[in-house]
């Protein structure tokens, strides 16, 4: 991993892996808060690397010092789930694969809340000594298809890694968005992968709620994918329609979202967005059909970036609203109760039931 001034979190990260890995290498890019001492106390080898504006360069420096057959890379603000730590070593069973995904659980919002979670299968384990390296100054990725063009990318170990780096307080304290935008703009000028750079810029502007700029960049991302005769990944369409929803652009979002669903019919987030959009357009039977598809799909397809609740309690809550609008109050009550059965702490559904009881 790479680190700079991570004393608040790096100890928990290292403690979560030290018993399942053979060596720990931390590349420090200039800590002044005692991070290096914490790393040493957890048995890590600490290497100093002057920050040069590239996360990939820092990771590759650490990679050059690693001796193991497999690499497991993490961020300092991540932790491997205690119940899943032993699963990491299942990687040795993948005799015919060079890259393996884990179950990444991303938290967002003001505090850790299991209703504000995004989940995805993410490539974090890969073979050493075969030429794999990181590319990109920021949101660095492995050069898998340059080295192994035919590599299948669906190998998966259900070991959860919890990521807290985009909680509101961390983003503000570390000035992440301004830092990220500066590095991404430099990436854009340098060429590289403009489709992903535009996508990542759009993500940062969406976090700032600068939705017009975000929308411009996500459309540029889609255009660059298509120009390279590549299908834009599902999470790019997810971002596009979340931006339109946040700006209340219902007519801009529908029926366009139906075309995205034709490309990714198994992506629950797109069906949820369609249900939400149709609800706003007062097309309640159509919204119910979309939300029914959400609960059929569930949230287990982690080849997509999945929002927790979109295939379960949040979908049932919106179904309850649709039933209310249609005057089908018994069905509405049943839908709200189902949302609460799945997630007893879901206050929106509880409040909806309370309001119904007052009628």
Task: Spell out the key features of this protein.
359 residues; alpha/beta; Spore Coat Polysaccharide Biosynthesis Protein SpsA, Chain A; Serine Threonine Protein Phosphatase 5, Tetratricopeptide repeat; 3 domains; six-stranded mixed sheet; three-stranded parallel sheet; 14% strand; globular
Helices and strands in order, then pairings?
Elements: E1 2-3, H1 10-15, E2 25-28, H2 35-41, E3 45-48, H3 55-65, E4 70-72, E5 78-80, E6 99-107, E7 117-127, E8 134-135, E9 141-142, H4 144-147, E10 156-163, H5 168-173, H6 176-190, H7 194-207, H8 211-227, H9 234-246, H10 250-253, H11 256-263, H12 268-280, H13 284-297, E11 306-307, H14 313-325, H15 329-342, H16 347-357
Parallel strand pairs: 1-2, 2-3, 6-10
Antiparallel strand pairs: 4-7, 5-10, 6-7, 7-11, 8-9
Helix pairs in contact: 6-7, 7-8, 8-9, 9-12, 11-12, 12-13, 13-14, 14-15, 15-16
If you had to describe this structure to a student in words, what would you say it looks like?
This protein is an alpha/beta fold. The protein folds into 3 domains: 2-171, Spore Coat Polysaccharide Biosynthesis Protein SpsA, Chain A; 175-232, no CATH class; 253-359, Alpha Horseshoe (Serine Threonine Protein Phosphatase 5, Tetratricopeptide repeat). 47% of the residues lie in helices and 14% in strands. The chain contains 16 helices and 11 strands. Strands 4, 5, 6, 7, 10 and 11 form a 6-stranded mixed β-sheet that branches. A hairpin with a 5-residue loop joins strand 8 and strand 9.
């Amino acid at each position: 991993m790479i680190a700079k001034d991570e004393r608040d979190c790096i100890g928990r990260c290292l403690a979560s892996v030290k018993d399942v890995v053979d060596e720990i290498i931390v590349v420090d890019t200039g800590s002044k808060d005692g991070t290096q001492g914490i790393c040493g106390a957890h048995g890590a080898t600490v290497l100093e690397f002057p920050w040069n504006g590239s996360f990939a360069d820092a990771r590759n420096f650490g990679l050059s010092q690693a001796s193991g057959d497999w690499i497991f890379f993490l961020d300092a603000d991540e932790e491997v789930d205690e119940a899943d730590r032993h699963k990491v070593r299942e990687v040795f069973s993948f005799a015919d694969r060079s890259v393996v995904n884990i179950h990444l659980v991303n938290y967002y919002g003001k505090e850790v809340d299991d209703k504000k979670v995004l989940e995805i299968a993410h490539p974090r384990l890969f073979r050493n000594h075969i030429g794999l390296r990181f590319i990109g100054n920021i949101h660095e990725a492995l050069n898998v298809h340059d080295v192994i063009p035919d590599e299948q990318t669906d190998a998966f170990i259900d070991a959860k890694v919890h990521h807290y780096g985009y909680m509101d307080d961390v983003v503000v304290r570390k000035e992440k968005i301004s830092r990220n935008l500066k590095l991404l703009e430099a990436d854009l000028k340098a060429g590289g992968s403009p489709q992903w750079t535009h996508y990542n810029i759009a993500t940062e502007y969406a976090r700032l709620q600068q939705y017009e700029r975000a929308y411009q960049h996500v459309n540029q991302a889609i255009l660059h994918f298509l120009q390279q005769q590549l299908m834009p990944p599902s999470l790019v369409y997810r971002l596009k329609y979340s931006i339109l929803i946040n700006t209340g652009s219902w007519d801009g979002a529908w029926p366009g979202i139906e075309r995205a669903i034709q490309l990714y019919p198994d992506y629950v987030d797109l069906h949820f967005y369609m249900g939400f959009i149709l609800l706003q357009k007062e097309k309640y039977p159509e919204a119910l059909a979309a939300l029914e598809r959400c609960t059929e799909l569930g949230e287990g397809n982690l080849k997509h970036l999945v929002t927790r609740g979109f295939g379960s309690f949040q979908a049932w809550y919106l179904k309850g609203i649709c039933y209310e609008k249609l005057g089908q109050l018994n069905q509405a009550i049943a839908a709200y109760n189902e949302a609460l059965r799945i997630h007893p702490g879901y206050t929106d559904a509880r409040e909806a039931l309370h309001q119904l009881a007052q009628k």
